[in-house]
Design goal:
The chain has helices at 50-69, 71-85, 87-100, 121-134, 136-139, 160-168, 206-214, 240-246, 248-264, 281-290, 323-334, 339-349, 357-360, 368-407, 413-416, and strands at 150-154, 172-177, 194-198, 220-225, 265-275, 294-301, 310-317. By secondary structure, the chain is α/β, with parallel strands linked by helices. The chain has a single domain (22-419), classed as Rossmann fold (3-Layer(aba) Sandwich). It has a 7-stranded mixed beta sheet with strand order 3-2-1-4-5-7-6, sandwiched between helices. Strand 6 (294-301) and strand 7 form a beta hairpin. It is globular.
Length: 421
């Protein structure tokens, strides 16, 4: 699990290539990134069992409901569909494959470039510009020596956030990231004011070990959950499509990041975490649980503004001892991740078996609570989703222009390009 901002750029929970990946632009060669599987590998209802089909339908139904209530989401989904249907975008992907390889032969996929560690520079530059705008009370000036600032960064490698907070602002902190031997990035920043430990937050209950390492409860002013999973770090599911439908791997990561934040933050502190999935049903459910324990919420872009991952900012923490925080902790720690756990809870409580853990983590209806949360997020969501849609449209139009100029086949244009394969 890599830290920093970026990661998987596939914005469609069906997987596959489309206009929605920064790597689709050619030339220049894209940065090391996850290349979604080709259309021939898409997950269709014919290859899913009945439960997976039901989950896929729930996600699609939620997306439709959200589109009716949010024009920016509707526009983004329409642009994604246009990318999927574009012959020119598919042609550009095939050009990319021919130039840079694909799968096991890809020259730009981090999975095939073990040991490659990105520089911290681009992250630090981004944080210097963005974080003071996001929360000037925390990041607008160097730390006061009489009141040192402390942070925890989960998914820290290569260390851009740590370098910014420690090097620029004089904070002290704790960094945790997947070990290089487990296909994580190595840290590129070190300081006497920064303690580091390897950590795999896909392991259930890992947050408790990390809480001990930071020194216990209410010690941090800021907790960053920067874990972004790429294809080289998914040990459970082979594709984003199936991973989104199964979710256990993602949920353990979110649980560990968020439970560490709720316990380690001081009252008034802030939690920042990466959300990378192209579906928002899980995001809404998480925020319904977390929002009451904080004074404010918004979403922000990553430094790769055209990609699907976004960051969620929760500021003004009420404190662990409040009822709102306790309720959030209960939801995160007691809601089963696996269906087997639902059966076990039912047996212990005498309520019988049955039920689906996946449903408890995904919002499926537009309730009054969702409408209230959405009103608060509408402006920042529109900024993120409009930026993504603009980015995808630009890529699609560039691909179509190149294709129609004769680069897509002997006949030029879509009609004459049928023999281009």
């Amino acid at each position: 699990m890599s830290g920093g901002m970026g990661g998987s750029s596939n914005g469609n929970y069906g997987g596959g290539r489309s206009g929605n990946d920064e790597a689709a632009a050619l030339p220049p060669p894209p940065p090391p990134a996850v290349r979604p599987p080709g259309r021939e590998h898409d997950v269709s209802t014919d290859t899913l069992d009945g439960e997976a089909v039901r989950r896929k339908n729930v996600l699609e139904s939620w997306s439709t409901v959200l589109a009716k209530n949010d024009a920016s989401w509707d526009v983004l989904q329409a642009e994604k569909r246009a990318g999927w249907e574009s012959e020119a975008v598919d042609w550009r992907w095939r050009q990319r494959d021919a130039t840079f390889g694909h799968g096991g032969s890809s020259k730009v996929d981090r999975v095939n470039n073990r040991g490659m560690v990105p520089s911290t520079r681009k992250y630090v530059v981004f944080y210097r510009e963005w974080m003071p705008k996001l929360a000037p009370e925390l990041f607008g000036h160097a730390a006061d020596e009489s009141r040192p600032r402390v942070f925890a960064d989960v998914g820290s490698a290569p260390g851009g956030m740590c370098e910014y907070l420690v090097g620029d602002l004089g904070w002290s902190g704790f960094a945790f990231s997947l070990a290089p031997g487990d296909e994580g990035f190595g840290m590129q920043f070190a300081s006497p004011r920064l303690a580091y430990a390897d950590s795999d937050v896909s392991v259930a209950g890992e947050w408790r070990r990390l809480l001990d390492l930071v020194g216990g409860r209410a010690v941090c002013d800021f907790v960053n959950g920067g874990v972004v999973i790429d294809r080289g770090q998914q040990r459970v599911e082979p594709s984003e499509a199936s991973d989104t439908l199964a979710m256990e791997h993602h949920l353990e990561i979110y649980r560990n990041e968020l439970l560490l934040g709720l316990h380690a933050l001081r009252p008034g502190g802030a939690l920042y975490f990466a959300y990378q999935l192209g579906q928002t049903a899980l995001l809404m459910r998480l925020l319904l649980a977390l929002r009451p324990a904080f004074a404010s919420v918004r979403v922000t872009p990553t430094f790769a503004v055209g990609r699907t991952p976004m960051y969620v900012w929760l500021g003004g923490y009420a404190g662990l001892e409040t009822a709102a925080a306790a309720a959030a902790v209960r939801f995160l720690s007691e809601t089963p991740v696996a269906d087997a756990a639902v059966e076990e809870v039912g047996e212990k409580t005498g309520g019988g078996g049955g039920g689906c853990a996946w449903d408890a983590w995904h919002q499926s209806e537009w309730s009054a609570e969702v409408a209230s949360l959405h009103r608060e997020l509408r402006e920042s969501l529109a900024h993120v989703w409009t930026t993504q849609a603009d980015h995808l449209r630009k890529q699609r139009l560039e691909a179509e222009h190149a294709f129609e100029s004769g680069k897509g086949g002997k006949g030029g244009g879509k009609g004459g390009g049928k023999g281009r394969w």
